[in-house]
Write a structure and sequence with these properties.
The structure holds two protein chains of two kinds. Chain A is α+β, with helices and mostly antiparallel strands. Helix content of chain A is 25%, strand content 42%. Chain A has a domain at 5-53 and 79-99: SH3 type barrels (Roll). A five-stranded antiparallel beta sheet of chain A has the order 4-3-2-1-5, with no helix packed on it. By secondary structure, chain B is mainly alpha-helical. In chain B, helix 4 packs parallel to helix 6, helix 4 (87-105) crosses helix 10 (298-318) and helix 22 runs antiparallel to helix 23. Chain B starts with a helix and ends in a 9-residue tail after the last strand. Classes of the chains: A alpha+beta, B mainly alpha. At the A-B interface, helix 1, strand 1, strand 2, strand 3 and helix 2 of A face strand 1, helix 2, strand 2 and strand 3 of B. Chain B: This is N-alpha-acetyltransferase, non-catalitic subunit. Chain B: Keywords: Cytoplasm.
């Protein structure tokens, strides 16, 4: 996206208070409202929820239960989610950014 | 209408189906846009402040991010709560939970205490059935081939942990129902967990009752271990019971008794540290950095439990019936409670619950009756104005009816702040001082209010005036404003002495502070003296009414005790004012370099809580300055100090003879003795310092020399509320000073 600094700033401003999904290098994802960012892609999110891939144990447990229940098809395991509030995600860990809506 | 409803329903349906939000990948756009920003340039929401930003948790920082997993570590703890445990291991787990629980009571978060138990974590986890189990809620029942011992172990552990959780739940409820400061005193935060709100205490009690006989009947274990486990179940059952029905006071003493045996039986346990892990914090909702799991010694934890139970036993002792009917005794009781060593929020909440929980104190004394009794005991003993019967008179032209309404009007305005005198004492010491400084202007405004009511009362009752023997001026009692003024002056003195206790004054400020304290005490003594004269006069006036005379006599004794204490405070304060001023002016007490402070600024900073006072305005900066400049010779000052101390000691002899009924210290006899002893010790310490200073003066001369020869430490060794200078020869010139 070739654009002027003014356009870049306007674009980022338009994202303020939107809910972003920030995926980071350890596999977690943070969903919260964008409050602040800078030229290093450090991102401050408010009202943030942390999502984590289910652990190996979770999957084993779910698989065992699925088998016991005798249902066919795929096993579905939910992401682990918890509230963490106001966070700053340092730019160097950011791998993917998504916006809701 | 129906259209609107169907539209709303449709919208709700849409909202429901849209819960999985559509997202758009903007990684590239975002990255290239942020690359265009200048270094240091921020794009931020205008309402979002950098101050807030400081509070944000930094993701991937091990100290900040509770979800960070160090390389090579696993997300969850390895221990599975469904693992069979031996009974000695079970004993250890129960004791460890007991340790963590008391640390939570002492002010740490659940996330670093009780919640680190993997058993409790499992029981509080998602998808648990109504009665939670240690077994994976999704992975079916108990492991196969459990032995009887292991099966009993799991049953005991489940019942015990569920009971612990319920106890925590009830403690949170109780503490939150009263005044406390989150994080500062206690952490009620549950980190997104619920403490089994759907389970009743009866159900849990039933679980405990169910496992006890199973354990009792089980033979294949040492009697010691079995006995130890049963004790803990019994302890838990009592704690649960006493939290849900707090009328059963003697149960706290039962718990105290059990704690002694519980403490010694810990030796039969086998450690199982894997059953606890701070990794649970990775799954707890929290906006705080990770906190380390607490470790405490078993002895320490037992002592803390005992202390807490003792505080609660003391609450009940201190608020006995004979006490709650006397405002003076009850105030002493809350002070005594506040000074009982290590503070726990639970006893404080129970104290407040007794004082304010139901409409009446201990269900017996209405707050208004307490206030009226206070006014009566202090300024209007034996007077029909405060006779409860006067308040029943319904004839609107009756002067008693008119006066009662006036007094009621005043009490309406005074009651809230008056009750704060009791409530504030259930906070920590710094809070107490701070809230008292805030109540000074409120009591000052109360004096103004009371003056108006006094004028109205005077018009109706035309009560007697007395003549000041010195000035020849006539003055009236002005009961309500005298009452409010007494409290205001006393609170002002309290804030100063609480300041000594919390060490907010530097040594070179102590001279001036003591001078101010002496001034306030002097005003209080004069006020009490006047009130006493009126009470003596009234006792003659009402001599036909025996009850009224008796009331007057009691009040006279009480006023005499208050007067004596006020005078003792004044005398010691004057002695210390003179001593500190002398030591500061000779440089023995050094003044620190203060580049930006002027005398005026120092005065304003220290006098801030008092500057807003309108009635009895505080001394000006110039007066303060003058008082803290040393006048006269060293010898003369030391003689004056001796005089003051001598006088104070004489008054203390009288105070020691006062009975609990006279000086109103029923229920707090021990504390009274301790206070008197503290004052005596302070007097001696001041006299010792004065004589050392005198000797040093003779030896080294009065001026500059002293500072090079002597060093001074301000100490509070003799009484919490008195800072006394302690003199020592500097090492370089160590020659005996005696």
């Amino acid at each position: 996206m070739g654009c002027t600094p003014a356009q870049a700033s306007a674009y980022l401003t338009s994202l303020l208070n939107k809910t972003l999904h920030i995926h980071i290098s350890d596999g977690r994802m943070f969903a919260g409202q964008l409050k602040c960012t800078d030229n290093e892609r450090n991102i401050i999110l408010a009202m943030t929820q942390e999502y984590r891939q289910p652990s190996r144990k979770d999957i084993e447990r779910a698989a065992a239960e699925h088998e016991a229940s005798g249902k066919g098809g795929n096993v579905k395991v939910d992401m682990k989610k918890r509230f963490v509030g106001l966070v700053v995600v340092p730019g160097k860990y950011v791998e993917k950014i998504e916006v809701e809506g | 209408m129906s259209e609107a409803i169907s539209r709303l329903r449709q919208e709700a349906e849409e909202a429901k189906s849209a819960w999985k939000p559509r997202v758009k990948d903007i990684t590239e756009d975002f990255t290239s846009a942020s690359n265009q920003l200048e270094p240091g340039q921020l794009v931020k929401d205008e309402w979002f402040t950098l101050f807030e930003a400081v509070g944000a948790l930094e993701i991937m920082d091990p100290k900040m991010d509770s979800g960070f997993i160090p390389p090579g570590d696993t997300f969850e703890a390895d221990f599975d709560p469904a693992t069979p445990v031996s009974l000695p291991e079970l004993l250890w787990v129960m004791d460890q939970i007991l340790c963590l629980e008391i640390m939570w009571h002492a002010g740490y978060a659940l996330s670093q205490t009780v919640f680190t138990s993997l058993h409790i974590d499992r029981l509080l986890g998602p998808q648990q059935p109504r009665i939670p189990t240690l077994y994976s809620p999704t992975g079916g029942g108990p492991p196969e081939n459990l032995t009887e011992e292991q099966s009993i172990g799991h049953a005991v552990l489940t019942a015990y942990c569920v009971a612990v959780i319920k106890c925590c739940d009830m403690v949170v409820g109780l503490v939150q129902s009263q005044n406390f400061y989150e994080e500062e005193d206690f952490v009620t935060h549950l980190f997104g967990r619920e403490l089994l709100p759907h389970m009743s205490t009866n159900t849990i009690d039933g679980m405990l009752d169910g496992v006890i006989p199973r354990l009792e009947d089980f033979g294949n274990v040492g009697e010691d271990v079995k006995e130890a486990l049963l004790l803990r179940l019994q302890f838990r059952s009592i704690f649960l019971g006493v939290l849900s029905d707090r009328t059963s006071e003697q149960q706290w003493e039962q718990m105290l008794g059990l704690l002694k045996t519980i403490k010694t039986s810990h030796t039969f346990s086998t450690p199982l540290p894997d059953a606890f892990s701070d990794k649970v914090q990775r799954q707890l909702a929290t906006s705080t950095p990770p906190r380390p799991m607490l470790s405490t010694s078993w002895e320490d934890a037992c002592t803390k439990w005992s202390n807490m139970c003792e505080h609660i036993v003391a609450v009940n002792r201190l608020t006995q019936s004979e006490v709650v009917y006397s405002p003076a005794c009850l105030q002493r009781a809350v002070w005594a409670f506040s000074y009982r060593g290590e503070a726990f929020p639970l006893p404080r909440a129970i104290m407040q619950d007794i004082l304010f929980g139901e409409q009446a104190i201990r269900g017996e004394v209405l707050p208004y009756d307490l206030l009226l009794a206070d006014i009566r005991d202090l300024v209007l003993a034996g007077d029909t104005l405060v006779d409860p019967q006067s308040f029943q008179v319904e004839v609107t032209t009756d002067p008693r009816h008119i006066c009662s309404r006036l007094i009621e009007g005043f009490m309406d305005k005074a009651i809230e702040e008056y009750l704060n005198l009791y409530r504030m004492m259930c906070q920590n010491r710094c809070r107490i001082r701070r809230t008292f400084t805030q109540s000074i202007p409120i009591f000052d405004a109360m004096v103004t209010e009371a003056k108006n009511v006094d004028v109205e009362l005077q018009k109706i009752t035309a009560s007697k005036k007395l003549t000041d023997t010195r000035t020849g001026k006539a003055y009236s009692l002005d009961p309500l404003s005298s009452w409010a003024r007494f409290y205001k002056l006393r609170i002002m003195a309290w804030t100063i002495q609480l300041g000594f206790e919390t060490e907010i004054y530097l040594p070179d400020e102590l001279g001036g502070t003591y001078w101010f304290l002496a001034q306030l005490s002097q005003q209080r003594s004069e006020l009490l003296d006047r009130v006493l004269q009126f009470t003596i006069g009234r006792s003659f006036h009402v001599r036909h009414d025996q009850n009224a005379v008796a009331d007057c006599m009691l009040s006279e004794k009480y006023l005499e005790s208050l007067h004596a204490v006020s005078e003792i405070t004044r005398l010691i304060a004057e002695a210390l004012w003179k001593l500190f001023t002398l030591l500061t002016s000779t440089g023995v007490v050094a003044k620190p370099e203060r580049d930006y402070a002027s005398q005026q600024l120092m005065y304003e900073a220290r006098m801030k809580p008092y500057l807003a006072v309108v009635n009895d305005p505080v001394p000006s900066a110039a007066e303060f300055d003058d008082a803290t400049t040393h006048h006269g010779s060293l010898e003369q000052t030391c003689n004056e100090v001796d005089e003051h101390i001598k006088e104070a000691k004489q008054l203390l002899v009288g105070v020691k003879k006062m009975t609990p009924e006279q000086a109103k210290y029923l229920g707090t006899e021990e504390e009274w003795k301790k206070e008197v002893k503290g004052l005596e010790a302070t007097c001696i310490a001041v006299a010792v310092t004065a004589s050392q200073v005198r000797n040093a003066g003779k030896k080294y001369g009065e001026d500059g020399e002293l500072a090079t020869k002597l060093e001074c430490k301000a100490e509070r060794r003799w009484a919490e509320w008195w800072v006394v200078p302690v003199i020592k020869e500097k090492v370089s010139s160590q020659v005996a000073l005696r």
